[in-house]
Specification:
The complex is a heterodimer. Chain A is of the alpha/beta class. Chain A has four domains: about 210 residues, Thiamin diphosphate (ThDP)-binding fold, Pyr/PP domains (Rossmann fold, 3-Layer(aba) Sandwich); about 120 residues, Rossmann fold (3-Layer(aba) Sandwich); about 180 residues, Rossmann fold (3-Layer(aba) Sandwich), CATH 3.40.50.970; about 70 residues, Alpha-Beta Plaits, CATH 3.30.70. Chain A is about 40% helix and about 15% strand. Chain A has 22 helices and 23 strands. In chain A, β18, α19 and β19 form a beta-alpha-beta unit. In chain A, α1 packs parallel to α6. Chain A is globular and about 80 Å long. Chain A starts with 12 loop residues before the first strand and ends with a helix. Chain B is of the alpha/beta class. Chain B has one domain: Pyruvate-ferredoxin oxidoreductase, PFOR, domain III (Pyruvate-ferredoxin Oxidoreductase, domain 3). In chain B, about 40% of the residues lie in helices and about 20% in strands. Chain B is built from eight helices and six strands. Chain B has a six-stranded mixed sheet, sandwiched between helices. The chains are: A alpha/beta, B alpha/beta. The interface between A and B is large, with 67 and 62 residues. β8 of chain A pairs antiparallel with β2 of chain B.
């Protein structure tokens, strides 16, 4: 990412939402920023890390989101400004700390950024993390544009410091990855020196009076946010339809009313601050419209909040028609879009609305029959393909219907065809070894199936450790396979404890997976998953041993990282004389079963070929071809 | 703010993860912002390097800031690094007048490679695209890029081609300047050649 501390104040530049959040934090004088990588939030911390030296701040990839927020809170107690950024799942990880922090309070401005992922484009769920604002009574800001990402970050720090509590800024995947014009402001001249006054103490007891203080802070935040003007109305004085919207949905609503030609009939109440809700403002606008539509993603946060405010004043306001999730005008699942909002507006206002000529739509829809879905899968050369190939072979040979408990990372795609659908369950970071731990204790009740838990090297440190200690302690019977590709590959190759590098590019201390295993008293072995024979032998043997938890580390650097480090050694080719193709024997074993995108079946000749643009030359497929037709030659020799 | 002939000007840039469409849309966005327009570039990625479809939306206006997602079936142009992806996107953003520029080189989805699904014959794919757009530019962008020494330059070839049409309010030199902000001068020579090649491709059509 770019060093955003070098931007020229006053000069408009194209910035990604996540970069604008980072710049906003720098302008607010953040001193410590921490995060665990997770799309769509990852670029925030990466941008801050790449700006850290010139901005003179400390930036860290932490082992998980809870630790990240705790580190940021430390800065706050030392009188500095801190922040933690995460994806929606991370809020769950940090939640226990958040729900106590909000009672104990904070000193220096402290901001939590959550980047939610409606439609789950790069997530295992599409959870709406705004719940945390209600649960923990925290002020919540929702920007709609990169420019607002910057300005609202500054506001969030000011607000946090003024009320003495954490403030949440919620982004969305679309916003995180949207680039638009942003005009940076100045950076602060100097920051205070960190010092924790020993007379200041931060804890939650006595709980009840401090609970009241927490509520008072939220009320105070409401007043500050009203004065800040982040909620505003745009439209006719008495609109026929009022849209109450937040986040990107504000822009969709604005575009939708132009699309259906209803600029004079539709007003939009832009909610930049969505907790606490500005009751006075909402009542004022409810009084001026008879119909109200909600536009937000994903949960009906505004919808339920506004209806609750309405319920208190229903006598004064009279009957209103509300449209939203409950009426089907806002989908309960997935993203919103300008077209979906336009459809809702047209329906409510009785306007004609068509996206384009209906005969075109019919034709375009029919043509989609030609378009095969493009399922995601492991990259050419990915060590995970080789790892799952070995697990598939070994579990088949073992014959006891072995179970693979999955986890979070690129290797989650073990549930898909390029992982041979070998993974039986995936939930959240670290839940794989936990589920395996429970399964491995069902032996006494007759469970005979072998159990494998797969976990990536970064996930190993994030949340797997407590489950491993549990399994060790209780003598649970399973094999932990650490898919160690020496990177947090899914989210953009961030370093982690096992690599020893840090966010700011300095040498940290390598926390060695083997040493951790040895420390826990776990037997372990290291294999290279590219070597199918050795891997399969080690895995088969480990499954037969039984007893307690034992560990296999499948170690091979991510194929993309290998590509950047000089690439793979092999030039692959198929000998057409040897390839059996469809005619006899293997029934396209390499393309049909092994499924590397570097291998293409040429229907014209009935033989497999190598796509030279796609193949990286890992050499694994040469080991699976039953006819020995796929051949690996050193690149140098053939160049 | 400058005025636009087509306002909003909505360009979809699509392809398969790893083909460089996010970079192409970013270059376009920078060039248009520098030229004084309001620009929003919406990117969809996350699994982008893992064989999935990746789409960016470059939205240009002279007025209000636009959201990251364009309305369905209203794209001005679809620029595709892979021909099947162009057809996929027409199902979401196409209309009778849309301009389609596509690379002619197929990247077969995994299901096709595994023999479970089929990929249309070139003639059928081309004819279907033609029937669903106002103008089709079927361009050998990967072949042109390989002539320059690297298949990854196909994205810049297509940017050059886009500059050769009458759609953008900027020309190739402005796109080149934006590329220059993102690449060191040592890497600019092939980028310049790729832009020129793209321009030449549409002039031949």
């Amino acid at each position: 990412m770019a060093d955003v501390s070098k931007l020229t104040p006053g000069q408009k530049v194209l910035l990604q939402g996540n970069e604008a959040i980072a710049r906003g934090a720098l302008e607010a004088g953040v001193s410590l920023a921490a995060a665990y990588p997770g799309n769509p939030s990852s670029e925030i911390l990466q941008t801050l890390a790449d700006s850290a030296h010139s901005a003179g701040i400390y930036v860290e990839w932490s082992t998980n989101e809870k630790v990240a927020l705790e580190s940021a809170a430390a800065a706050s107690y030392a009188g500095l400004r801190g922040m933690a950024s995460m994806k929606q799942n991370g809020v769950n990880v940090a939640q226990d700390f958040i729900c106590n922090l909000t009672i104990s309070g904070i000193k220096g401005g402290l901001v939590l950024v959550t980047c939610d992922d409606p439609s789950g484009v790069s997530s295992t769920n599409e959870q709406d993390a705004r719940f945390i604002a209600r649960v923990a009574c925290l002020p919540l800001l929702e920007p709609a544009t990169p420019a607002e990402c910057l300005s609202m970050m500054k506001l969030a720090f000011e607000l946090s410091e003024e009320i003495g509590n954490l403030v949440v800024l919620r982004g969305l995947a679309r916003l995180s990855h949207t680039r638009a014009g942003v005009t940076p402001g100045p950076l602060p001249e100097a920051k205070p020196r960190p010092h924790w006054d020993p007379n200041e103490r931060w804890f939650t007891i006595p709980v009840v009076p401090k609970h009241q203080v927490m509520l008072d802070k939220l009320a105070q935040a409401g007043k500050i946010l009203t004065a800040a003007g982040v909620n505003y109305y745009d439209g006719p004085v008495r609109p026929e339809l009022l849209v109450i919207a937040s986040g990107s949905s504000r822009l969709y609503a604005d575009e939708a009313r132009r699309l259906v030609g209803a600029n004079e009939r539709v007003g939009i109440l832009h909610m930049g601050a969505t907790w606490p809700l500005d009751q006075e403002l909402i009542l004022e606008h409810l009084a001026r419209a008879e119909k109200i539509l909600f536009a937000e993603e994903v949960d009906p946060h505004l919808e339920s909040g506004v209806k609750s405010i309405y319920a208190q004043q229903v006598r004064e306001l009279g009957l209103k028609d509300f449209y939203g999730q409950e009426t089907g005008h806002k989908p309960p699942i997935g993203e919103l879009s300008p077209s979906r909002v336009a459809g809702a507006l047209a329906d409510i206002l009785g306007l004609p609305w068509q996206e384009t000529d209906p005969s075109y739509l019919e034709k375009a829809k029919a043509a989609q029959a030609l378009v095969a879905p493009r399922q995601v899968g492991f990259c050419p050369g990915c060590p995970h393909r080789a790892s799952y190939w070995s697990m598939k072979q070994v579990l088949a040979a073992d014959g006891r219907e072995g179970i693979v408990s999955g986890d979070i990372g690129c290797y989650t795609m073990g549930v898909l065809p390029t992982g041979y659908q070998r993974v039986n369950a995936v939930h959240c970071m670290g839940s794989g070894p936990g589920i395996a731990s429970g399964l491995g204790k069902l032996r006494g009740q007759g469970l005979e199936q072998p159990v494998i838990s797969v976990v990536g090297d970064s996930t190993f440190f994030h949340a797997a450790l407590p489950a491993l200690v549990n399994a060790r302690w209780n003598n649970s019977d399973y094999v932990l396979v650490v898919l160690d590709n020496s990177a947090t590959a899914m989210t953009g190759f961030q370093p982690h404890p096992g690599t020893g590098a840090t966010a700011m590019g300095q040498a940290g201390t390598v926390v060695d997976v083997e040493q951790v295993c040895a420390g826990l008293g776990l037997p372990y072995a290291v294999v290279d998953p590219y070597d199918l024979e050795a891997t399969q032998e080690a895995l088969y043997d480990a499954l037969q041993i039984g007893g307690g938890l034992r560990v296999l580390i499948f170690r091979r650097t991510c194929a993309l990282v290998q590509g950047k480090q000089g690439g793979h050694p092999w030039r692959m080719s198929v000998d057409p004389e040897l390839c059996r193709g469809e005619d006899c024997g293997c029934n396209r074993f390499c393309t049909r079963v092994f499924r590397c995108p570097g291998l293409v079946f040429d229907a014209a000749t009935g033989k497999a070929t190598v796509d030279e643009v796609v193949c990286v030359g890992c050499g694994v497929c040469a080991q699976i071809c039953p006819a020995g037709a796929i051949q690996a030659r050193p690149k140098e020799a053939t160049a | 703010m400058k005025t636009l002939k087509i306002d909003p000007l909505d360009i979809v840039v699509t392809g398969v993860g790893g083909q460089g469409n996010v970079l192409a849309s970013q270059v376009l966005g920078r060039a248009l912002l520098t030229a004084g327009y309001e620009v929003t570039v919406g990117e969809t990625y996350g699994l982008s390097q893992r064989g999935g479809s990746v789409t960016s939306q470059v939205r240009v206006s002279s007025g209000p800031v636009l959201g990251p997602m364009m309305p369905d079936h209203r794209a001005t142009a679809i620029v595709s690094l892979e021909p099947l992806e162009a057809l996929r996107l027409l199902g979401a953003y196409g209309h009778p007048g849309v301009v389609v520029l596509t690379n002619d080189r197929p990247l077969r989805p995994l299901g096709v490679l595994a023999g479970e699904q089929s990929y249309p014959e070139t003639d059928e794919l081309k004819a279907t695209l033609e029937g669903l757009c106002g103008r089709l530019y079927w361009l050998p962008a990967t072949a042109a890029a390989l002539e320059l020494g690297n298949h990854i330059l196909a994205n810049v070839v297509l940017l050059g081609a886009l500059c050769g049409l009458d759609l953008l309010p900027i020309d190739a030199s402005e796109v080149e300047a934006a590329l220059g902000e993102m690449f060191p001068e040592t890497k600019m020579a092939p980028n310049r050649e790729a832009l020129a090649k793209g321009l030449a491709l549409v002039r031949e059509v």
